[in-house]
Amino acid sequence: MTAGVVTVRNRLGHALHCILEEPAGGAGGTQIAAVLLCPGIKMRVGPHRLYRKLSKPFLERGIPVMRVDFRGLGDSEGDWPDDSLQQIYRLTELGHCVGDARSALDWLEARFGIRRFIVGGLCGAAITALHLAAEDARLSALYAVGLPARLDGTGEQPCATRGELSSQWSRYLRKLGRPRAWLRFLSLQSDYRLLWRSVARRLGTSRTDPATQGDRPAPDLNPQLPAGMLALLQAGRTALILFGENDPRRWDFEEKFLQPWSAVLEPYRAQIAYSVIPGANHVLGNPAAVAAANRLTDAWLEAQASLPQIALPAQESTPAMRRSARGSGANGIHPPALECLVKPMRASSPQDAQLCSTTEYSSSTRLQK
Amino acid sequence: MSETPFFFRLGDQQLFAVLHRPDSGAARQGVVLCHALAEEKLWSHRVYVNLARDLAGEGISVLRFDFRGEGDSDLEFEECGLQTRRTDALRAAEVLLEHERHLGSCIFLGHRLGCAVAAIAAATPAARAQAVIAWDPVARGRDYLMQLLRSTVAGEFARTGTAPTRASLLESLEAGKMVVIDGYGMSPQLYRDLVQLEWTRLVQALPCPVLAIEGTRDPAFWRESKRLHSRAPAMSARTMEWLRGRSP
Q1: Do B210 and B178 fall into the same domain?
Q2: Interfacial residues of B (vs A; Cβ cutoff 8 Å)
Q3: Which residue range forms the structural domain that includes residue B81?
Q4: Residue B180 confidence (pLDDT) above 60
């Protein structure tokens, strides 16, 4: 495998400096490539060089991987209209960088003749890929880690999810015996609003669903999430969606999108592979989480029979992995940690309970928490 | 000015770099930029880019590069310590001077832990160091390590409500085990390097002039990255002024 620098010109003329990792046989002759987009401000390599680590299952299957810096980020040219962190996040969620992502695809098509792409990455990269999915048919599959459902900077107070409040409650209980936690509480440093909502939720005095405000969609839901996802799925394309167990964005995704849209998504259930990685945070910041993500990715790639030209060499390391709908239980054994996670989630409809599909493991390969 | 991203070689490995050169005429000085550690590097990256562009605009060639184990360069983070970073910085200086053959020497500019690397590299006779510029140098490696561990423990506790203690992490490092901090594997070697690091001792060993611009100390830098971004123009201006005074 080799890594080289590629300079892509976006449609505004900015030089976007990217890294192209080629598999052992080179990128020539392949008909599909993976494009990992800049996740936020942490440039094309990602936090703790996550993208280098996540590239492995693609490269091992002969799929070249391009890591892309957006304009105004990393080493690329250009600037942001507002370089405050919150605005960078908000603009990314609104699709500010989708043109740059398209330019990367253009470059790969012009250079190697590749016309099918797996696009995504962590957080802002995943939502940018969804924007792209709505307008570029070359995006064959979405690869999303920690996909944000929330739109920052709406002016609305972020809507806490049931999962978040429940998690907070557990954390408060664990902190009861810690003098430092009491010091924070008594010195007015705690988030009292969140504390109160967590307590109210626990006591059953909260009358509406915190995430969806009753029947209405959450006011801070990014409208591009349902729009982009449906555009992707309706065109017969697929998605791998991964979250860390301790990533609060998971609850946003499940409660603000997956559950309210369950009936609409039901026909496309087989196209979505959705998994939660036990013990992992938003950036998959421990080696076990990265290894789990790569095993899930590898299994997903193997299942992508609709994506031709993905070499499917014998995978000695993952013989026991397979995908099936959550709840079927017949094709494998659910990892206990995943079962533990999904049970407290109250499904808003019978379909909802079956919507999430996940990679399952035999007893010999289940994820270790 | 021009910007050229490329990989340069060091033995079997390759390191990512960007060379920023002035548009017109020969560069009057050359700067090798030694970045901060791990997440601090990522949060600060755009400051480095802007600084390099500013310096190139002033007629100075700048080589930015990723140490091995960081960014787009080879090796894993846990395989690298201060000595590999020193070797990388020295090789980067060679590469810069290969591109700017009329310059007989270069300036090492470091940020945070990169200051220590810059100083160690500059103290090497073969480095042909003209000067060292230090932005927010890490004063004591042990304190810095404690900040990193404290941050790791606090972050983990905030996310999950449970976390190992700092003492237990230190015990692991002392016992020769790797500890993961913000996704980066800290090796026992890097731990030992940090524990022994004293900025003032490094400065005393330097055979060349040093400009130190100090600021952020605590809390851990990347939690306060906005402060660097807001202070960067002033630090950049101070750096430029000092370099103008040293221009041949």
Answers
A1: no
A2: 3, 5-7, 14, 16, 18, 38-39, 42-43, 45-46, 49, 64, 70-72, 77, 158-162, 180, 182-185, 226, 229
A3: 2-139+198-245
A4: yes
B159 closest CB neighbour out of A15, A246, A287: A246
Low-confidence residues in chain A, pLDDT < 70: 154-158, 194, 197-198, 201-202, 205-215, 305-369
Residue B118 has pLDDT above 80, yes or no: yes
User: Domain check: are B79 and B154 in the same one?
Assistant: no
Query: Do B177 and B98 share a structural domain?
Result: no
Statement: the pTM of the whole predicted model exceeds 0.90: no
CB–CB of A174 and B72 under 8 A?
no
SS (H, E, C) A170-198: HHHHHHCCCHHHHHHHHCCCCCHHHHHHH
- CA-to-CA dists, residue A235 to A139, A143, A244, B39, angstroms: 10, 16, 28, 39
Residue A246 C-alpha, separation from nearest chain B C-alpha, in angstroms? 6
- The answer to whether the CB atoms of A5 and B71 lie below 8 A apart is no
Q: Which residues of A309-341 are buried (b: 16+ CB within 10 A; e: fewer)?
A: ebeeeebeebeebebbbbeeeeebebbebbeeb
Helical spans, DSSP H, in A204-286:
224-234, 248-252, 262-265
Tell me, yes or no, whether B174 and B218 share the same domain. no
**Total number of domains constituting chain B:** 2
d(CA B45, CA B48): 5
Is A45 within 8 Å of chain B by CB? yes
Look at A15 and B3 and tell me if their CB atoms are within 8 Å. yes
Q: Tell which wins on pLDDT, B142 or A356.
A: B142
Task: Tell me the three state secondary structure of residue B46.
Answer: helix
Task: Please report residues of B whose CB lies closer than 8 A to that of A170.
Answer: 161
B93 and B163 inside one domain: no
Of the candidates A38, A34, A44, A48, the residue with the CA atom closest to the CA atom of residue A280: A48
Q: In this structure, are residues A352 and A262 in contact, taking their beta carbons and an 8 Å threshold? A: yes
Residue B129 and residue B10 share a domain? yes
Contact A7, A37 (CB under 8 A): no
> How far B94 CA sits from the closest chain A CA (Å)?
21
Tell me which of A2, A49, A180 to substitute to probe the interface with B (most B C-beta atoms closer than 10 Å): A49
Residues in B closer than 8 angstroms to A73, CB to CB, are 46
Residue B52: closest CA among chain A residues belongs to which residue?
Answer: A75
Looking at this protein, which amino acid is placed at residue B74? D
Asked if the C-beta of A79 comes within 8 angstroms of chain B's C-beta atoms, the answer is: no
Q: Nearest CA of chain B to the CA of A256: how many Å? A: 21
**Which letter does DSSP use for residue B185 in this model?**
E
A78: which chain B residues are within 8 Å (Cβ-Cβ)?
none
Closest Cα of chain A to B123: distance in Å?
29
Cβ separation B182–A285 shorter than 8 A: yes
Whether residue B184 is found in the same domain as residue B204: no
CB contact at 8 A, A362 and A332: yes
Tokens of A176: 């009861």
Asked if this assembly's ipTM is beyond 0.90, the reply is yes
Mean of pLDDT values over B48-55? 96
Whether B98 and B129 share a structural domain? yes
**Of the candidates A232, A54, A226, A221, the residue with the CA atom closest to the CA atom of residue A145:** A54
